[in-house]
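Hi R.,

Here's the chain you asked about this morning:
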Amino acid sequence: MLQLSNLGEMPDYRIVIAFLWHEFRNVDTDGDSENPASRSWTCLTCEDREGTSSRFDIDPITLEPLVLGLRSEDPEIAARVALFLHRETGCDVRLGDKPVGEYVLIERCGKDFDIDEAFNRSSNSVWRKSSLDNPYPNKSIGS
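And the predicted structure, written out as tokens:
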């Protein structure tokens, strides 16, 4: 299990999905985000429904200070999520008592994963425009 600490503001959790696959990937999610656009979630479970069966879970280990645990049976998915959250929130990543640097996470993402394209997808995600008042910015008002 990877540990994430010293987290800044969390992204809309849907941006994590955009980073991993694409914006509207068919996934099953659960967590403690009362509003999908929340930037203060601490729990997230995400399972891909499009044949890969990839799943990851993020849960608090401690609340004060906030330390999140990131688990996945797929070590590449875990590394990808950790890399994204490290860059997005500035968090520290540890495996047990050892710090895990960005280059190690990149190496663990897998050769078939295009990191630059993933960050491009997440940077341009429609969910970047979400807010608590407008959690679905891709839908026109009145539609």
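The chain has four helices and seven strands.

Let me know if you need anything else.
M.
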